[in-house]
Amino acid sequence: MTDYDVLIVGGGAAGLSAALVLTRARRKVLVIDAGQPRNAPASHMQGFLSRDGLPPTELLSLGREEVESYGGEILAGTVTELVPTGPGFCVLLSDGRRVSTRRLLVATGLRDELPSIPGLADRWAKDVLHCPYCHGYEVRDQQLGVLGGTPDTVRYAQIVRQWAKDVVLFVPAGFLTTLQRSELVARSIGIVEGEVNRILAEDDHLRGVEMGDRRVILRDALFVPPRFIPNNDLLIRLGCQIDDAGWAVKDGTGQTTVPGVWIAGNVANPRAQVITAAGEGSAAAMAINADLVDQDVRDAVKAFNLGF
């Protein structure tokens, strides 16, 4: 007999939302969380209906209480391996414990890989930001900068322009096409070309961007589109198919190519905000429960027929 109906790896918004749905469906659920949320450096989260401005840690605390109130279990720990066992899975933890489960939901999120510019990481989630929809309103009408150099940079700067009139795009020399340059000039977005030397701060606030020629461009906040790296090592070792961009292949409910395994949140969708991740967790939970019901029906029919 398995220990749990569903084991969820990752106790962020996606994992806890799924656990809430599944515990309310009277499933036996365990959430294992390593306690390293991606948004830990952020003091507040935005854009979550009825919870706008709430500290992320408080949201998770409330979510854990709700899950536990319906009988769900939450365990602090690190999962090191997911092993198929025929109808279910064996989950190995770093402390040597083993747990069995009928179904798996992996909600391990992603990590942000930042450009290796001195001073940049120190200001991350303070006044060096990645999402204008998450943080743009809080820095509206200030002197904003966008650190460029990737194919989507120009469009990203045009989006940031929605929140302030004074926006500067930092790009390598020769990076912009003639069309891109004209589009930026048309919306009064400043262009600073050259190598970024370091990010300057003073009194725990961003001061500006120092260029390679020692020019200092004063800015109040800087938007930096990071490279998103999914925390999908467990999925890869389990045999889940990974696409060319490095993300696990899934269907519309979050089911991977390995039967019985679902994904939700940032490990599945790099652009999912907290509210999006919670919704994906909820959708995956309903699909998982439906799959379990199908198995329950098969098992019941088999047991019934054996009785005759």
From TrEMBL:
Reactions that this protein is recorded to catalyse: [thioredoxin]-dithiol + NADP(+) = [thioredoxin]-disulfide + NADPH + H(+)
Annotated ranges, domain FAD/NAD(P)-binding: 4-280
InterPro entries referenced in this protein's UniProt entry, alphabetically: FAD/NAD-bd_sf (IPR036188), FAD/NAD-binding_dom (IPR023753), Ferredoxin-NADP_redctase_2 (IPR050097)
The entry's keywords: Flavoprotein, Oxidoreductase
Phylogenetic lineage: Bacteria, Bacillati, Actinomycetota, Actinomycetes, Micrococcales
Protein name: NAD(P)/FAD-dependent oxidoreductase
Top-level taxon in the UniProt lineage: Bacteria
Pfam family, one: Pyr_redox_2
Keyword Aminoacyl-tRNA synthetase: no
Record bears the keyword Flavoprotein: yes
Molecular function via GO: thioredoxin-disulfide reductase (NADPH) activity
